[in-house]
Fold these 2 entries.
Entry 1:
Amino acid sequence: MSTTTLTSIPLCDLKAQHEVLQEELAHAMQAVAASGHYILGPQVKAFESEFADYCAAEHAIGVGNGTDALHLALRALKIGPGDEVITTPFTFVATTEAIGLVGATPVFVDIDPSNFNIDVDKIEAAITDRTKAILPVHLYGQPCAMDRVMAIAERHDVKVIEDCAQALGATYENRKIGTWGHIGCFSFFPSKNLGCFGDGGAVITHDSELAGRVEMLRRHGGKVKYHHAELGLNSRLDEIQAAILRVKLPHLDAWNVRRREIADCYNGQLANLEAIVVPTEEFDRTSSRCVYHQYTLRIAQRDEFREKLTSRGIQSFPYYPVPLHLQEVHASLGYGQGSFPHAESAANECLSLPIFPEFTAEQQRMVIDAVRSVRSQTPQSRLCA
Ligand SMILES: *Cc1c(COP(=O)(O)O)cnc(C)c1O
């Protein structure tokens, strides 16, 4: 029996996607290079319009990255020092970084252990007279129950900013995420469901005043060139990235369908294994669609399990190993071990497996066999179509 593993299966293979679209992408980049127009030109304008159409939003504004999208959304809503923003402790740090950077205070609410997203039932108890916004994150591509979030926001007259960085294309009750709240924030970081060749992001909104504020703030806070009303940022999507995104956007739905097929295949062959919990979709699958930015298991003795997978040539990663309320950067908020037990156990048990649109059935079979063998099960050797 062979003891060495020659193959290595990555969590995400960005080169595989590039190979498929290589010619079109090279052409698009070359055309921008030759145009002499590199910042806030026709490509960004066209992408903003196509992206708004895709999301069924009134306005889309291209910005420098997803973190800035959140930052600019908060600034556009005039949220700042003394204000509180309710969010989840189980997300990427960018979510609370943006809140902190505008001088506001993140207020955490524990997650729902069944879907890793903010527990909507616990939001209302966290609202105070300083609360200005609720910032749900559609983690791993799984939509939050936005109708219920919006009902709470309306009752208390607070705004809703959706962090859609991991969930572009996901729907909740037949409506794209990002269009439920007052403002939706996206990232085009290369490994996101729609990724460019560097940093990129966008904000969407139905509100033309908010759109105008984001547009002004992304370019130094002035409506008229060299006249500055507010402190802004330099945070623009650039022409090359916009051109790349315009090539890729028409493929996004097919890629997301493929991600769902991969998740279904994993679920079919990993459910019922000892001490493994596969992800579940909470809502009706025809009207609410998870887009599986990550396929994330819960596993007891996660780190030991992960080491065994690594030794079998399979990459995996615990997104995220430390919840935000236990991060040094947020020590001043005064939370501690035990503040949010569901987020803490998710951080201890979560493990994301390889998933990307170009993942082959054969690669997936190897991952499934490796997981089963770590659990002392016979290989299943069943290829999903
Ligand atoms: C990626 C990500 C961001 C930040 O996006 P960048 O483009 O990397 O700045 C924000 N929130 C979540 C949940 C993310 O996954």
Entry 2:
Amino acid sequence: MIRLADPFTTVTVSEIGQQQAGNLTKAVHGKMGMRSSQPHHELITPLAQTATYTFADTADLRAFMESKMWGTDPSMAERGEYGRYGNPTVRSVERRLAALENGDDALLFPTGMAAITNVLLSMLSAGNHVIFTDDCYRKTRQFCQNFLGRLGIESTQVAMGDYEGLEAAIQTNTRLIISESPTNPYLRVVDLDRLVHIARKHRVKTIIDATFATPINQRPLDFGIDLVIHSATKYLSGHNDIMAGAVIGESGLIHALRQSQGMLGGVLDPHAAYLLERGIKTLGLRIGQQNRSSQAVANYLESHPKIQRVWYPGLLSHPDHKVSKQQMDGFGGVVSFEIGLVPGEDPLSSTSRFIDAMTIPYIAPSLGGVESLIEQPALMSYYEFSTQERLAIGIADNLVRFAIGIEDTSDILADLNQALAQV
Ligand SMILES: *Cc1c(COP(=O)(O)O)cnc(C)c1O
């Protein structure tokens, strides 16, 4: 038995060379996990910065059209026609993501929200019903409740972790269940086996927004989930410099989504795809460091007298610790916590004082990049609400979301230590 540095990974000698490529290798090399050659021997996938593709002559065009209609020539399937129908740089990243998630195929979008809205618009019709879990990305909830509602598509919000409630919410017209895992900001983790069991019993398709996990920490398709969605703006690209979204799943579903993407028009720019591929190559290393730092931060905060409560799936105190340990290879890079109340000061101000005292993390929305980011959700996503309205949806004024970057763990801990001393 060879024990690797990562405590989650052990490999027996007999397995070496026989097992499927690991995700660190797949992140670097793509599907086969081995070096591959490009037409011009360049190491890097070329950036095909083009809006359209040419045909040698009308016979070439005819051959392409015939193959498109009848699927006769598989080599033609990958040929470019027009930018909205595909791009080789984008395609390369899609294959890499499919390999990482153990899916047949993947489809990229210009943002995570474009991925979510395209999937829901493509898979639902008027009269259908969709179930989503609470503690989800706010725009996803708003899209389900308001936008889909206008199109005659019903939705029901179910509390995260309430599987009886989830099953009871399924109606004869329910088509989809969509949930995040882990969720934002409380890092709740869906029991994927249980979700799939319920959904299959009622012939409902399941979608997991796995942005917070990445395929390094969790691969929902292995559990029977139908589609995995990512905001690739976050960990997958990893450098806070591009926006992108991804959907991964079985080839028939992805093919249908690709058809509707060609109509709805939300395609990823090739240059963003080029940067995304570059980012994905270091995904495994970045996530490893973010997992380690976050666990250390969560442990530190949980024992700190000025911290009221910490949410991190790697903590025994987290409601989903057990299921996270069973189905994930790491607990992720986000830690949420509440600053203890300071007598005579309102929690909004004392928490802001703590955030302002931190020196390493930038104050910004988003997560998943190399730079640590910190935010007070009450002042960011939920600013227009009153304290009472925020509390009703579970967002306290003293809540902090810390998205940990790849800085030295010891520097992050020291920064927290000095900032908490000022609270
Ligand atoms: C950021 C985020 C989204 C939206 O992605 P964009 O790339 O910003 O459009 C969706 N879901 C989760 C969990 C996110 O964190």
